[in-house]
Amino acid sequence: MAFHHVSVMKQEVLSLLSPAPGHVVVDGTFGGGGHARAILERILPDGLLIGTDLDEDAVTNAQACFADVQDNFRIFHDNFSNIRAVLDQCGLAGANGIVLDLGVSLHLLEKSGRGFSFQREEPLDMRMDGSGGGPKAMDVVNAYSQDELARIFLEYGEERQAKRIARRIVQRREDEPITTSGRLADIVASAVKGKPGRIHPATRVFQALRIHINNELAHLEKFLETCLDCLLPGGRLCIISFHSLEDRIVKRRFAALAQGCTCPPDFPVCICGNQPKVKLLTKKVVKPSQAEVEKNPMSRSAKIRAMEKLAVEGAGGEDGRAKQ
Ligand SMILES: C[S@@+](CC[C@H](N)C(=O)[O-])C[C@H]1O[C@@H](n2cnc3c(N)ncnc32)[C@H](O)[C@@H]1O
Predict the structure, then answer these.
(1) What is the pTM of this model?
(2) How far away, in angstroms, is 299 Cα from ligand 1 center?
(3) Residues 147-181: pLDDT tens digits?
(4) Nearest-CA neighbor of 239 among 107, 105, 98?
(5) Residue of 289, 227, 191 whose CA lies nearest to 82
(6) From the CA of 99, how far away is ligand 1's center (Å)?
(7) Which CATH architecture has domain 10-104+218-309?
(8) pLDDT digits over 19-39, tens only?
(9) Running DSSP on this structure, what letter comes out for residue 22?
(10) 20 to 30 A Cα–Cα from 88, which one of 39, 147, 264, 284?
(11) Which atom of ligand 1 is nearest to the CA of 78?
């Protein structure tokens, strides 16, 4: 199956990650491998690109499309929140670079048949790892209470009409269980009040369900807890997010890692002893150029934040392979 995705802000990722020959770089959200291929070209002849993805189609596609660089490439069907364990399996102390390009690929949206798009009539699944366990979106939509559904739509979709939509879903599922993306999209559209906006009325509800089903924010938090331990001194992390919930989490964690002393300002001397652990490479978020947004409108909400792990005494500047 041909795997379709258009990578966003490739040049910006390259200039922030600064991959060089011999580097070990992890692409935690491999997708169609667009970022990975561009990075690989910079780390050859002796670098290593490690990919992870939850979507088994992405992994199968990677095995075929990256066969030409098999000595410099490994792919894992895993969650990026497990990157530390993946590096351990590869016998590596850390990476020189990590990139995350959060959310779904065009493949998941358009070709997976798993109900990610409100524009398609497909089984309402929404698990990125279609081979994994855990509830599908249809289980949630048909079993959760009205309050619980409203909370998900509000919290993960920032949907102002969350309560109305949840009420309508609960009414309609009495007639017949909601099992397809098309039917859910119609039910949401029928519940939403007001003039049609710029985006489809089901956009936020679909985003919210997807985030809930895949536990996306919790995995991002877990990754951010371990990211420092996965980077070599001087190693860089670059995260592309597509909505404010993700961006807020990344921004706060980066700021906490970059912060030095946390003593109250009226303390005459520092007693916490905290030192900054990273340097922020993006004081302001990096956004796609106007030209990119015109070419690929789906890039319009993308934002990059990047940081560099500060070198500790005597340990800076190595590459990951040297530490095996
Ligand atoms: C936006 S796409 C990445 C596209 C890729 N950068 C490219 O250039 O083709 C996001 C990918 O990340 C995967 N993904 C999302 N969350 C994940 C997670 N927690 N762990 C592993 N993969 C994840 C999705 O399955 C999807 O393939």
Answers:
(1) 0.93
(2) 15
(3) 999 999 999 999 999 999 999 999 999 999 999 99
(4) 98
(5) 227
(6) 10
(7) 3-Layer(aba) Sandwich (3.40)
(8) 999 999 999 999 999 999 999
(9) T
(10) 39
(11) 21
